Amino acid sequence: MKALRVVATSVASAVPTLILATFIVFFLQRLIPGDPAVALAGDYATPERLAEIRADLGLNEPLLQQYLSWLGGALTGDLGQSFRTGQPVADLVFERLPLTLILTGLALLVAVAIGLPAGVLAAQRAESRFDKFLTTAATLGIAIPNFWLGMMLIVVFALQLGWLPGPGGPSLADDPAEAMRGLVMPAVALGAVGAAEIARQVRSAMIENLSADYVRTHRAKGLPSRSIIWKHALKNSSLPFATILGIQVSRLIGSAVVVEAVFGLSGLGSLVVEATNQRDYTVIQAVVFVAAALVLLTNLIVDISYRILDPRIA
Amino acid sequence: MKKSLRFGGAALIALLLTFLAACGGGSGGSGDGDRALRVAAAADVSSLDPIKGNAGTDHVMLYPIYDTLISYNEGLEPQPGLAESWEQSSPTELTLKLREGVKFHDGTALDAEAVKFNLEREMAEGSNIAAELVALDSVVVVDPTTVTLKLKHPDSSLLMALADRAGMMVSPTAAQKAGADLGTQPVGAGPWKFVAWKRGSQLKLERFEDYWDKDVERVAAIDFNIVPDPKTRATSLRSGQQDISLEIAPADAKGLESASGVTLSEHDRMWLNQVYLDRTSKELGDPRVRRALSVAIDREAVLKSGYFDRGAVARGALPDDYWAAPPESVEYPYDPDEARQLLREAGAEKLSFEMIANADSATVRVAEILKQQWAEVGVTVEILPREVVQATNDYFNDRKAPALLSAWTGRPDPEATYRLMFTAKGYFNTSHEAVPGIDEAIALTDQGTTQDERLPGLNAIADAVYKDTPFLPLAFASNLVGVRDDVKGFQDTLLGKPKFTGITFD
To answer: What's the pLDDT score for residue B29?
Structure first.
């Protein structure tokens, strides 16, 4: 019952946030200089054609009215049509969404699989040589831009060694196995920063816990070190871990834009870049809407997990 | 036990990698003659309806679906297309003799009525290309394979416009049924037909078995993969994910040339890198100032540093190996002394102006070179890098700066290029005032119908443009295309929009 109430209040507070996000983006994107009509007419522009396109797209209406009619549509499940092609925006977004979800999911897996054990090990041997190495590596991991790491991975693993497929391979729908192979390098490039962040956070939380009184008691009563670390100390370090995981999800969705470009992947990131270049406002708006919803959903999950992980949180 | 835990993370990753590696197995499919030709393109087609599209880069994806009434050869001279012959009985009458028995992909006959339907559709509201057919008055069906285009006034550029979007014939049945949806369900009469399109990601075509030309080599299918990043297009080709990569950046060319299994096709093209000038602006309103800017440019240096020496220096709006190349007198030889003197005569020794530049790294590099070369003659330029749509908007619509460093992608007919950039009504002439003498020279060109008859007029246009210096031609950068070694028969043209007929796998 309590969990249900938590979900309900969280969802209730998420809706205004979501609407606020769409409102901000709606007006921000109109500040991007450049006219969608110019993008649409392109090489074949004439002043008459530009005026015709503006009228067709409803761009002559007052901004607030344009926003309200968009919001009305969005709340009833209609995200509008692409300025550029007239296709329903929802189709475009949901065609690209699976790839981005799989990519960020894999990247998160990479981040946790590397970051969590590394953080624990470093904490266990704080100030050892391994710890120093790890701290340096984590700092480097955070500092290295993911597009550069991606390009280096391509050069080594696709061009030199030929172990993994290069960028621009088949899509998930055409050849799922090959497409998944193609996602390994992007997931590593995208997840590397996350791994570094997680390792650092887990390390410091674990060091704190390992010096706590209850750990000393456990040791005194002869509990094996493995059990102390992985069962007791780690569980008590899970709050900062859940927090950093939540932050990583929103960061991964944002960074996917760059990694998708480097690896020639067509996910949400490339869709929003393309839409921005074409001033396809309805598409930008829809992608932001979906991305914001994903981030809010993640926050909700993190909120709930706090309460499960630590019963003291009401 | 401890040890296994320690390496748990690494083991998990290794397991995942092995699994994925095992899944992949036999990729590549070399030796399979029926596989699709994979082509990496820089940008998706803006619309699959020829009259709705907006970009010069669309054609590579439109030509396979839509055959044109007129075709062209490597040097852009008119060749038979869907029209096997044509006749211009007078400057205002063009008669096309169509091939017999040609069918659209949906089985509709491509006859004179279909041509009339198409041309009228192109002139109607909602068409992006109505401006290219302004001279067209009416279309008369003479018999099922003969159609006559009647013109309001002479326009000798019309013939080659029929090798561009205006000549791409769509099935009237499909157009009437689809209405506005033709852009996603295209039906033409080209060598390949439409299968599927995922916007911004992939366009799939397959061979049209009833294509009229039974002799031409065609691969079984074409997959166009959209890969906007130039580096990624190059690595994708090198790693064997593509058979052809279009629009290789000059900076990546060397890497491809030294890579194994890949060949770089380098072809001249009419894509002109240039500075558009606002000839009525207060800074650049004096033709002497514009000429000074032009002769202050060391074009060889620009070509070398800006385009890695892959291309040719531009004297005028059209390249030297083109039949309508400007006469030899058209040239701005590098002469900083003359530039300084012209600026003195015009009272503009301390000239300072703003130049918008497309924000891609190659264009910005060229902008920096120009800035330095102009500084040598005392001219200060402030570069305003802008993303393409904003640059176009700021310069052509809002006229926020008197100069724009960008490009002109070219048209199959030379007159169209001049008209769009230098006449009063040309959208790409931001001053909206005609270059002195150009209207007379265009009228002279339109009196002829053959290349020989038109050339004196075209030379007069080039001369009028040269005297006024309404733009600063810089370089015709080569069209660089990466091709895998097992792909045979790739051919490019001066237009730089390759068609994929004639290609086979080794």
So the answer is: 41
Q: Name the fold adopted by B70-175.
A: Dipeptide-binding Protein; domain 1 (3.90.76)
**Would you call B9 and A118 a contact, using CB atoms and an 8 Å cutoff?**
yes
Neighbours of B307 (CB within 10 A): 24
How many A/B residue pairs have CB atoms within 8 Å? 181
Length of chain A: 314
Q: Which fold does the domain B30-45+190-268+479-505 belong to in CATH?
A: D-Maltodextrin-Binding Protein; domain 2 (3.40.190)
**A85 in contact with chain B, both atoms CB, cutoff 8 A:** yes
CA dihedral of B212, B214, B220, B223, whole degrees rounded to 10:
-40
Q: What is residue B89's DSSP assignment?
A: E
CA distance B218 to B195: 16
All residues of chain A having their beta carbon less than 8 Å from the beta carbon of residue B44 are: 274
Question: Closest by alpha carbon to A191, among B65, B197, B13?
Answer: B13
Task: Select the residue from B182, B203, B235 to test the A interface by mutation, using most A Cβ atoms within 10 A.
Answer: B235
The residue of chain B with its CA nearest to that of A225 is B2
Residue A166 class from Cβ within 10 Å (0-12 exposed, 13-18 middle, 19+ buried)? buried
> How far off is chain A from B415, nearest CA to CA, in Å?
15
Considering only CB atoms, A279 lies closest to which of B46, B226, B389, namely: B389
Alpha-carbon distance of A297 to B259, in angstroms, equals 47
Q: Which segments of chain B belong to CATH 3.10.105.10?
A: 272-477
Q: What is d(CA B207, CA B202) in angstroms, rounded to the nearest whole number?
A: 17
Please name the member of A32, A86, A167 whose beta carbon is closest to the beta carbon of B235: A167
- B105: number of Cβ within 10 Å: 21
Q: H helices of B42-109, where? A: 59-62
Report whether A208 contacts A165 (CB < 8 A).
Answer: no
Residue spans in chain B of domains classed CATH 3.90.76.10? 70-175
**Are the beta carbons of A35 and B242 separated by less than 8 Å?**
no
Contact A140, A225 (CB under 8 A): no
Tell me which chain A residues have a C-beta less than 8 angstroms from the C-beta of B130: 46, 49
Q: Confirm or reject contact between A30 and chain B (CB < 8 A).
A: no
Question: How distant is the Cα of A15 from the closest Cα of chain B, in angstroms?
Answer: 30
Choose among B6, B225, B396: nearest Cβ to A121: B6
DSSP state of B133: G
B317 touches B476 (CB < 8 A): no
> Which residues of chain B does CATH 3.40.190.10 include?
30-45+190-268+479-505
Overall fold of domain B272-477: Dipeptide-binding Protein; domain 3 (3.10.105)
**Chain B nearest C-alpha distance from A61 (Å):** 20
Full DSSP string of B322-379? STTPPPTT------HHHHHHHHHHTT-TT-EEEEEEE-SHHHHHHHHHHHHHHHTTT-
Complex-level ipTM: 0.77
CB within 8 Å: A42 and B46: yes
Residue pLDDT, tens place only, A41-93: 777 777 777 888 888 787 888 888 888 888 888 888 888 888 777 778 888 88
Chain B residues lying within 8 Å of A29, measured CB to CB: none
Residue of B nearest to A33 (CA): B390
**What does residue A109 show for φ and ψ, rounded to 5 degrees?**
-60, -45
Eight-state DSSP code of residue A223:
-
> What are the tens digits of pLDDT across the range B129-169?
888 898 999 999 999 999 999 999 999 899 999 999 999 99
Q: Does A151 touch chain B (CB under 8 A)?
A: yes
Confidence of residue B25 (pLDDT cuts 50, 70, 90): very low
What pTM did the predictor assign?
A: 0.84
Of A52, A226, A266, nearest to B5 by CB-CB distance is A226
